[in-house]
Amino acid sequence: MILCCGESLIDMLPRTASTGEPSFAPVAGGAVFNTAIAIGRLGAPSGYLGGISTDLFGTVLAEALTASRVDFSLAPRSDRPTTLAFVTLTDGHAQYAFYDESTAGRMLSEDDLPALGAETEALFFGGISLVSEPAADSYAALCAQAGERLVMIDPNIRPGFITDEPRYRARLEAMLARADIVKISDEDMAWLSTTPAALIEGGVALVLETRGAEGVVAYSAGGEISVPAERAEVVDTVGAGDTFNAGLLAGLWRSGLLARGSVRGAALEDLRPAIALGAKAAAVTVSRAGANPPWETEL
Q: What is the C-alpha to C-alpha distance for residues 147 and 121, in angstroms, rounded to an integer?
């Protein structure tokens, strides 16, 4: 199982009411949640770990996970509220306003962390769940306990959401040092003052730099390769990076490479099919509104 560890929330997406007035539609989302959903839809064994509320919106999240074949039996439930993210779109690019105080997801503690069994082959971390305590510290602790499991991280840094920058930087740097795979944007690298070469020197086996319509550049100690983006009519980019992450991990699973040693021992050309699956799946997501990853049959 690929266990996705991090936030789930309700995206309040901008819509126009039948009266012509602006409105918002509640849709299940969150970067890590979206990745878990996409992995399940792509036919790979998907799991989700994060605090889920028992409120109305928490029920929506749980039903969405079930519908996309995601195992969330490790996710603790509580009566705390669900995180809300109000989304605005500018030229198809999303900006977010988060309402996250004392929510079920944010208040995940180290005591809530499960003991991981052999069925958990890989761990995925990322998004805003790595920012706010206590959940951020809980995920960092789980990452440190990963053992020989494959670890992938997508920092997906949102500077406007960070309140304690030194603490966040220290946490993220420690997690990146443990990661086997890092997917990162040029904005993330600029904020971290790092490069793919520096990440590899720090111990990462595979760095994936996403470049939107220009595709993905993959780096390892053995060199680099470019994988083109799939052509698509872009409706919006919500969930595109999350779907890419899912496609990569699902592709590694399909190829029999979903293991720390396998990724570290593979040539970049061996990893190309998994990277290409990520790009292909992401192209479907950007072609329709919201984070709506494709099913395996759509590819």
A: 10
